[in-house]
Amino acid sequence: MKKALLLVIMILALISNLYSETFYIYVEETYNGEEPSICSPAKESLLDGLFELGHIAFDDIEGEGDINWNNEAFDSIINKGLYGGARILFLVNISSHSEINDDDMLSIVSTAEYYCIDLRIAKIIDFGSINMDNFYKEEQINQEELGFLLGSELSYIVDTVYKEYIVQL
After folding, report:
1. CA distance 153 to 60
2. Rg (Cα) of the chain, in Å, rounded?
3. What is the pLDDT of residues 98-110, one digit of tens each?
């Protein structure tokens, strides 16, 4: 009985790690056209979400990269990810804007454009964008909380994209 239970536990542990991967996360963010002076709640939540989903994720402490978002020129970031031992690069460009609405509340809209790249072959495996806002929820969701929600959503997107990609290989 103990051997059977041990076998089941080992199989479950193996299956749960079947889809684990190492991700290099690169986030650029602007708020009302300027770079924020504090650490991005979206990046923090994205990293936390990937850890919770069983992945290893790291970011660039320096935050410097020679990226041309319009031309999808990511060579310098791809090299950093490969050097760090990642298999998947997840690039995110977040643009947030706020304004005071008619009810004197701070309304925020955030748009995140993302690219998911297999670093081994420098292939874009997915790209897209998502939008989030706090319209009609201004009292409950401030700028920081909206960033955490956005990062959490991004972590599920990259996890899903990766798992679908692995199944196709």
Report:
1. 20
2. 18
3. 998 888 888 999 9
CB neighbours (10 Å) of residue 148? 18
56-68 pLDDT, tens digit per residue, is 999 976 656 667 7
Query: 12 in a domain, yes or no?
Result: no
* C-alpha–C-alpha distance, residues 59 and 89, integer Å: 10
Cα–Cα dist 147/50, whole Å:
16
Phi, psi for residue 20 in degrees, rounded to 5: -85, 145
Tokens 């299956």 found at: 15
Higher pLDDT, 17 or 169: 169
Longest CA–CA span in the chain (Å) reads 67
Q: What domain count does the chain have?
A: 1
Q: In terms of C-beta density within 10 A (0-12 exposed, 13-18 middle, 19 or more buried), how is residue 66 classed? A: exposed
pTM over 0.70: yes
CATH number, domain of 54, equals 3.40.50.10610
In a domain, 52, yes or no: yes
